[in-house]
Amino acid sequence: MDRSCVVDAAWGRTYPFHEPPAVASARRRLLARAVGDTLDVSPSWRRNHSCMRAAAVTAVTVLAGALPDPAPPPAAGPPVRVDPAPAPGSFDTVVATAALCSADRLDVAVADIARWLRPGGEVLALDHVLGAGLTAFAQRVFGPLGERAGTTCRLDADVAAALRGGGLEVTDMTRFTARLGGLPVPFLAATARRPPVPSPTAAPSAGEPVR
User: Fold this and answer.
1) What does the DSSP assignment read for 152-193?
2) pTM for the whole thing?
3) Which residues, in sequence order, are bridge partners of residue 185?
4) SS3 readout for 72-111
5) Which are the contacts of 76, defined by CB distance < 8 A and separation ≥ 6?
């Protein structure tokens, strides 16, 4: 979101850096959940667009700068529009694929997503995340070096913890490993919901016992 995702950028190149089948499958399953007014904050929003059900998604909004000119919007699927400053509480779904890892402040990025969602709306997140064992060790050692140089996104992002910390309810989560150029990369596909607004409780009338 603040910088490009090194993994997502690699997918745009030729073999052996094409999108792994496990990631492509997770993307299709996850984005089939998109409904209503949808905001896509992903650098790979065009790849996401083809996975959305036109009958379920009213329109897809992308942030300013995500729809380069003269590239036209996709001809098929839900209509696409650009909004430099989406209004709070405007979307039923927010899509973030290979996006949260690129945020300078993960907590701020999740807070923005929660603010854009309507109560009861869902965020659909797909990202490479912090692994375990030697993989996690390498991510923690080499990740900050690339970040300081401005050449990579966060290799050790804990997306699930960030979603929960932002007040969102994680309702579904799948962890898996895919290979990028022969290297194992841990991924997370998650669905999280902005809690609905509680129904107002009527005050007891005079003389009525409080339960």
Assistant:
1) ---TT--HHHHHHHTT-EEEEEEEEEEEETTEEEEEEEEEEE
2) 0.83
3) 178
4) CCCCCCCCEEEECCCCCCCEEEEEEECCHHHCCCHHHHHH
5) 50, 54
End-to-end CA distance of the chain: 48
Convert the pLDDT of each residue in 6-57 to its tens digit. Answer: 666 666 554 445 788 899 999 999 999 999 999 999 887 888 998 999 999 9
Q: Any idea of the CA torsion for 193, 197, 199, 205, to the nearest 10 degrees?
A: 150
The single residue listed with the structure tokens 């009338």 is 205
CA distance 43 to 99: 7
Element containing residue 136 per DSSP (H, E): helix 133-149
**∠182-187-192 over CA atoms, to 5°?**
165
Q: Give the residue from 82, 77, 8 showing the smallest Cα distance to 40.
A: 82
What is the DSSP code (8-state) at residue 205?
A: P
DSSP secondary structure, 19-61, as one string: PPHHHHHHHHHHHTT--EEEEE--TTHHHHHTTS-TTTEEEEE
Tokens coding 166 = 């932002």
Region for residue 180 given its phi and psi (left: phi exceeds 0; alpha: psi -120 to 50; beta: otherwise): beta
